[in-house]
Each structure stands twice: as structure tokens, then as C-alpha cells.
Amino acid sequence: MTAQHSLHFDTLAAGISAQLQAAMLQIPDEADALLEMARNGISPGAARGITASEYEALYAIARKFCAEGDFDSALPIALQLTLHNAMDARFSFIAGTCLQRKKLTVPAAGMFALALAVGGRNAAAMFRYGECLQAESERELAMEAFEAAIELADGSDDLHQLRRLAAAKLGRLREKAPA
């Protein structure tokens, strides 16, 4: 990516992010209308005319921030993406990732649960959900989540490392079983 292209991309994402932030402030005033739209399968983003390319630009910026370890900058973008299009599991997953990295494991668990609810069989989301449960001392539930992550990862060469990590965490939890 050239410096000029990167600058254009960052400027576009910043503009879209500002629009979404302004739209978020209007949500309390629009709650009834948004609820009715949701009942009809229309997301807030669709109602506001947010395009697929705008979502992708913001998602790319959030991923860039995450890759740089800048979860404080990525989080508001990820939450806005989730709010405006909750049916895209990538958005709730990246929001959960940001929250988890900031040690906010309860809301992170909620985001990973949303990613699982809308995205289906996702070993990474299940693994992260298990980590959040473990951090909250929910041992039994964490064990179930790690078992499910292992099952979801079985048969996928791409998920070999995740399967190993889940098995290791599950083994440690089993070793610490209450007497």
C-alpha cells in the first residue's frame, strides 16, 4: 500500500467513524424507530445507508489498530461496527478481542457470544469465550467452551495451534478440579 493510498484510506475511515459516532448519539432519540426496523430485519447501518465498502474500510482500520496493539483506538470503531451491523460476526469478534485485551472480560464474553450466535461454528470465538469465562472463575463453563473449541477446530489444519491451546487450557483446568 502506497503512502498516498494509506493516507486516503485513513482519511476515509476517520470520516466514516465520525459519522457513526454522530449517529450513535442519536440512537436514544431513535430507539422506537430502530426497534421497529430491527423487527423487520433492518440494521441501524442499513437504515443509515452505510455501504459495504464503508464497513470494510472501518473494519480494516480496526484490524490495523489491533495488529499494532492499539486496542484503545480499535475498540470504538469495533463497537460502532457491531452496533450498526450486529449480524456480521467479524465485528462482534473484533470488539470482543479489544475488550478482552483491555481486561474487560465480561463484556468481551458477551461480544464473543454474539459472534457465535450470528456466525455459527467459530472455533476462535469459542476459544476466546472460554478464556473470558476462565478469567471470571467460571471453571465449568470455561471447560465446556474449550471442549467446544477443540471440537470446532478438529479436522482443520489451519486451526491446529488453536486446538492445541484449547487442549492445554482444558488440561490445566481439569488438573485444578475441586476435591
3D architecture notes:
This protein is 80% helix and 0% strand. The chain has 179 residues and is an all-alpha fold. The longest helix is centred in the first third of the chain and has 37 residues, at 3-39.
Give start-end ranges of low-pLDDT stretches: none
Structural class computed from helices and strand pairing: mainly alpha
The whole-number mean of residue pLDDT values reads 86
Count of individual helical segments:
9
Q: What is the percentage of strand-forming residues?
A: under 5%
> Could you give a short account of the major beta sheet?
none
**What's the total count of β strands?**
0
Question: What overall geometry do the principal axes of the alpha carbons give?
Answer: elongated
Percent range for helical residues?
over 70%
Q: What is the end-to-end distance?
A: 57 Å
Instruction: From the alpha carbons, calculate the radius of gyration and give it in angstroms.
Output: 18 Å
Order of helices and strands: HHHHHHHHH
Compact overview of the structure:
With 179 residues, this protein is mostly helical. It is 80% helix and 0% strand. Helix 1 (3-39) packs across helix 4 (71-84), helix 3 runs antiparallel to helix 4 and helix 6 runs antiparallel to helix 7.
Features:
179 residues; mainly alpha; 9 helices; elongated
How do the strands and helices of this protein lay out in sequence?
Layout lengths: L2 H37 L4 H4 L4 H16 L3 H14 L4 H13 L3 H15 L3 H13 L3 H15 L6 H16 L4
Helix pairs in contact: 1-3, 1-4, 3-4, 3-5, 4-5, 5-6, 6-7, 7-8, 8-9
